[in-house]
Amino acid sequence: MSYISRVFDKRAAPILALVFVLLAIAGRKRQLRKRVQQQDERLIVNGLVAVPAFGLLRFAFLPAMVNLASRNKRFGAANIVKFPPVIRTICVFLILDYGNYLWHVMNHKIPILWRFHLVHHTDLDLDTLTAVRFHFGEMIGSVFFRGLFVLLAGASPIEVLWYELIFEGATQFHHSNLKMPYQFEKNLSKVVVTPRIHGIHHSINKHETDSNYSVIFSFWDRLHSTFRFYDNSSITIGVPSYRDKHEMTPAYLLRMPFKRIRGWEHHSTEE
Ligand SMILES: [Zn+2]
Description:
Oligomer: single chain
Number of helices: 12
Bound molecules: zinc ion
Order of helices and strands: HHHHHHHHHHHH
């Protein structure tokens, strides 16, 4: 679709690539959490897992969302209430972002969705490379739920694409290993999801993983009493039952949702 190519490929993708590189460099210079794995190994594993997910994002998810938005002229908040343009876009972004909060909660609470989201949580380190480690099945599932929120918001195609740019940039930022001054980050965390907030969500402690589901704006977690914030530079990242990096090859991770999966603390192999 030429529209996506013009807006996303030519403008958004280079910005996202730059954000990725800058956050990776900044996260190395000012490291929040100690790493437990070699970066070149993670680059290969997470990069290979990301390939089908990114293909689906670009060639299925984005066209589906843009198509839906361009056909929908009557349904959703922005089509029913005539807001001034800036207010309209803010409302659309808030509705889309709330949809992503709910979608993330569902990924943790609904067993079939957790099978796919688990692949993302089994990374033993947390940084911008984790931000690309998503199973393609999660992308397929998100088309339906996130599509529903595109309709509920009454989003236009351009709003869908710009929200996606901010969504992807925010995902890179909150997964990054960038250490910011504690008080500065604490203040920032009142509005947006920061690396320390999302670090708690990737903790091996289940009660901590069951918190901080927001993607861009952090206030959805405050609204639902799922918000936690503390200095987590010594936190252990991952899922207790999946801690063997030799086991988690790209092929294993791509097959993972289709096999019997382990409980959170279960250590014996069930496959
Ligand atoms: Zn999660």
